Give the backbone structure.
Amino acid sequence: MITESTPSSSSPTLSGIPPLKDDPPRDVELRTDLEKVDTKVSIHHPSQFPDGGLTAWLAVLGGFSCLFCSIGIFQGYYTSHQLKDYTPSQVSWISSLETFCMFFFGPIVGKYYDAYGSRFILPLGTFLHVFGLMMTSISSKYWHYIVCQGIVSATGASLIFYPALGDVSTWFFKKRAFALGIMASGSSLGGVIMPIMIERLIPRVGYGWAMRITAFLILGLMIVANLTLRSRLPAKGWSPFLLNDFTRHFKEPGFTLTVMGAFFFFFGMFLPFNYIVVSAKQNGMSTTLANYMVSVLNAASVFGRILPGWIGDKVGRYNIMVIISYVSGILIFALWMTTTGNAPTIVFSVLYGFSTGAFVSLAPACLAQISQIREIGVRNGALFAVISLAALTGVPIGGALVTRYDGGFEGLQIFAGTMLLCGATAFVFARVVVGGRSVMTVV
């Protein structure tokens, strides 16, 4: 007797005979099951970052314009002209306060940015930054410069800096350090162009109009930034302002160690930028050549902010951060402290500008790597609020050490180098917490 067996999904199908309706093929079953699965992926997921495209790169252009406008200017001129009756340490408080205000308001600006994005912050920052510089152009007393440039203009720069940092971060994931490096190179390029431009303008149009021309240049760049900067993420709306919104992040060891490394690094990083000209002259360099050393530092920093970020995206951002941090500290001890001629000073300026430029672009990239993108504003704000204290006090401490050593730079150089190495060591611990002890891990 011949019996019929019921077809199954595992049974071979005879060619030319369609499958029975009550026994669909396996691929149809799978397709039906998949249709029942919710395939919606969150916009915060790494796979949803475009890592390119016209809008993303226009945001980088806008961020570049913002950072070009965020540099401190005219400090050297004040010492020999308007504020010549004040000590260099007293005059340095203007630039220190400028940097402090730019970073210290980070938690507030970051909180607002996370809630509403950059649409309303950027125009306000543009107005305050330009208005502060315009008022500085007609200032005549020490406290005028403190208020107009050190507080008003710097507050505007803060409202410009954080939206740029946040918006660019929302468009990039795999290429984030590279994109942030291009954006951050704006401040380096500004550091090259602005001093040369000002040096040429003052003899021709005077200090007041040199300052106003600078303000108009910044206004033009900020118009570009306001037209191009956009966040990829929708505004999530305002939530109550609580201290815990900022302090809770420090319960994460990786975050705390990263902030600690940045704090120590900032303590010493700006000292060569502020004192390289004076120390070069003391070592016999001509005034004309010495005045270009800051431009040399900033020119090298342009490449330092882009190339290490590109490498960091491939071999690990924390890995590169550790290397460049130690290199920066070693350069101070090995080159700046021992230099006695023009060539070593120029070599130090190039190498130090490159290494510290890498830090500026990698620090926010490392932080974004260990953060949820929806909280990037608050976490960036918390980071920069802490390091603003180092930026405020580092340069005046360096000035006091120069006075303590009767115009010598040994104390300042030891302090700067030690702080950089302390920061590098903190980054080592952060890297271990984030990525483990294996030196081969890409982290």
